[in-house]
Amino acid sequence: MPITEILERNVKLYGDDICLVEVNPEITETKRVTWKEFDLIEPTAKTKFRREITWNVFEEKANRFANMLIGRGVKKGDKVAILLMNCLEWLPIYFGILKTGALAVPLNFRYASDEIEYCLNLAEVDVLVFGPEFIGRVEEIAENISKNRLLFFVGEGCPSFAEDYAALTSNCSSQSPQIKLTDDDYAAIYFSSGTTGFPKAILHKHRSLMHSCAVEQNHHGQTKDDVFLCIPPLYHTGAKMHWFGSFLVGGKAVLLKGTKPKTILETVSEEKCTIVWLLVPWAQDILDAIDSGEVKLEDYELSQWRLMHIGAQPVPPSLINRWKKVFPNHQYDTNYGLSESIGPGCVHLGVENIHKVGAIGKAGYGWEVKIVDEHRQTVQRGEVGELAVKGPGVMTCYYNDEKATKEVLEDGWLFTGDMAMEDEDGFIFLVDRKKDVVISGGENIYPVQIEDFLRTNDAVKDVAVIGVPDKRLGEITAAIIEVKDGYSLTEEDVDVFCHKLPRYKRPRKIIFADIPRNPTGKIEKPKLRKMYGGDHLVAAQNEVKE
Fold first, then answer.
1. Which of 93, 14, 94, 6 has the alpha carbon at shortest distance from 55?
2. How far apart (Å, rounded) are the C-alpha atoms in residues 231 and 213?
3. Which residues pair with 152 in a beta bridge?
4. Reported CATH class of domain 439-545
5. Which CATH superfamily is domain 367-435 in?
6. What is the CATH number of domain 4-29+40-258?
7. In the list 210, 288, 309, 469, which could disulfide-bond 333, CB 3.0-4.6 Å?
8. What proportions of the chain, in percent to the nearest 5, are helix, strand and coil?
9. What's the pLDDT tens digit per position in 52-98?
10. Axis-axis angle for helices 237-249, 206-220 (nearest 10)
11. Where are the domains of the chain?
12. The model's pTM
């Protein structure tokens, strides 16, 4: 069945129950001050901002948005992009899009204006819904993207180049538009990137979304009484698909804006959260804050917290061993997945397998896995090869990119580009990535984009960007720069030059050295990783064996 039917079922069963809570612990209170001819907004104090909605309200908001879209000409098969920070409106908007039969197209909130425009064009988006944090970026491209698209703004102070979401939906019907949907209807487009760094549009059907719900609930056993704390951004398949497990059983979720240790622990305590999905740096920060005395566990009510799980990047076994010493009663789990496999869970460790920390696990619920050589023949256990997965959550294709689709899909198998090894017990360990993507704090960073930018500097002869181990973020980017003869370049020069890049794309480490290339002219990144970064994924595996 289409995933929208779960929402309708939850309304019938749990209509008056709270389903979503938004918590922002650092909203600045303001007051309006009139001074001479100026009307000023003056900050006063920090306060906690909290909103909540029931399943009934969730459904009403989704239906109002769906009916508004239909009234503005949106039809089945159209695409509606979402560019919002986590907020109470995000998920009702997502489901409102699905209820029209259109495809939801979540956008990374870190995209620069040119990346936003590129993705809108690639996915052939008809409508863009955006929030106040993106006014500047959208305004830069508004003239280009508004020619054949509707722009809707969510928040206060709607800019002149967009229409106000709240005003438009307030008088729309709260009844379901009753658009007929099936498992085989297209539901969403998510974005990923290959080694080139250019985003690919990943097409999924309702069948994929439904499988994601079943996988997550099977792996973590969510019940109606569980409360899921969601911190990562909802555009990310990991965040939303982990929430799907709670959605499937009508459980409550808390959307937290903030990653400080005190903020997380306070929210777990006050909202009675039972399941928390963390990224490596957040877990590291919590442990460091406890060790330093910055936070004291006795100040919080944490006895109901039953599960901590981590995903989106390699997990150091030492971190989990340390976590279990501090939280001995916690279940722990990790999930492996890709946006092409509708997020986490195609490979899954399992809470019962903590003795295998360091592995990503075995085939998840409803999934098949294999490890293959360069000819896509299955390798023997203990041999390294490319990880491939197969199941109902595999994407339909890369939208409008037949060539790229054929490169990764064959007979229902998705070839991930990740190199892996299966041990004697059948557990899979990641060894390396074919792709050069650097995963820093759970976010994908594409080296080629940084390399291309740095090559515009007149002093740069050659450059390679790699990931190097980092205790907090898992990996950080290091730029190895070869300087042209007769030129000089310092770390400070590079830092200043890179201010033109978004902050998350700026290299965190600068190394001046020659760039090795093989006879065909390709940069020998494995050699650079060995010289400057080491193979930290293999090291993590060896740490488990010891």
1. 14
2. 18
3. 129, 163
4. alpha beta
5. Luciferase; Domain 3 (2.30.38.10)
6. 3.40.50.12780
7. 309
8. 35, 30, 35
9. 999 999 999 999 999 999 999 999 999 999 999 999 999 999 999 99
10. 70
11. 4-29+40-258, 367-435, 439-545
12. 0.82
